[in-house]
Amino acid sequence: MLHAQLFRSMPKLSSARAAARRQQIIDAAIICFAERGFHKATLQDVVRASGLSPGSIYCHFTNKDEIVHAVIRERHRRDLRSLEDASHSKTLDDALALLADAFFLGSNRREDRAWRRLAVQLWAESLHDRKLSAAVRDGVDKPRTVLADLLRNARDRGELPVALDPEATARVLIAAFQGVVLQRVWNESVDVEACVRVMRMLLSSR
Questions:
Q1: What are the angstrom distances between the C-alpha of 135 and each of 70, 122, 130, 162, 174?
Q2: At a CB cut-off of 8 Å and minimum separation 6, what does 41 contact?
Q3: DSSP secondary structure letters along 118-136
Q4: Dmax over Cα atoms in the chain, in whole Å?
Q5: pTM, two decimal places
Q6: In the prediction, which pLDDT does 205 show?
Q7: Which residue, 181, 179, 30, 26, is CA-closest to 103?
Q8: Predicted local distance difference test score (pLDDT) of residue 136
């Protein structure tokens, strides 16, 4: 009831302003969940981190669970967009450079670092939560399809061995990415650039 009253009392926002406000909440939630753990973090923690009023939060989300899933969807859309951009590259080397920048070497925003930390928590929790498992797997299955097509096209251009299985290779690359993310969460000093060079060398070897 209180949520509904807060919602009715809030002034209407333009669609652009509303989208920016929603993104502000998601970015704050990522940092909150990453630093405190998404089980321990409360909706009030997100309110404080966002700098918004409770009413502003409730205009977009009714509870913490909705925010968690909104965070997952937004980050998965961003990752999928990076893969799709790379899939339009003319060469495998160009595609790998874009992927390396998007997933390993690019933005070092606080929200991006926090998302990787939160992702590890979500991977573990998805083993016990079917709804969360579906959301997390969706963030792997769609990118894997795009990545497999990218590798298949590269193989057809003669840039990869004919015997290479694009589907299996896509899985291995995603597993390598997840492994590096986990190790980086444990130890910030992991040399990510060296890991990227190894993966590119392995793919470019004929």
A1: 10, 10, 9, 34, 16
A2: 29, 32, 33, 35, 64
A3: HHHHHHHHTTS-HHHHHHH
A4: 65
A5: 0.82
A6: 56
A7: 181
A8: 92
Residues 109, 23 contacting (CB under 8 angstroms): no
Backbone angles phi, psi at 157, to 5 degrees: -85, 0
Contact of 67 with 131, CB cutoff 8 Å: no
Q: Which residues of 3-30 are buried (b: 16+ CB within 10 A; e: fewer)?
A: eeebeeeeeeeeeeeeeebbebbbbbbb
Residue 54 near residue 6, CB atoms below 8 Å: yes
> Amino acid identity of 175?
A
- Average pLDDT across each block of 10 residues of the chain; the chain has 206 residues. List them in order: 48 74 91 88 89 87 91 92 95 92 78 89 92 93 96 94 93 93 90 90 72
Please give the pLDDT value at position 37: 86
Q: What is the DSSP code string of 35-79?
A: HH-TTT--HHHHHHHHT--HHHHHTT-SSHHHHHHHHHHHHHHHH
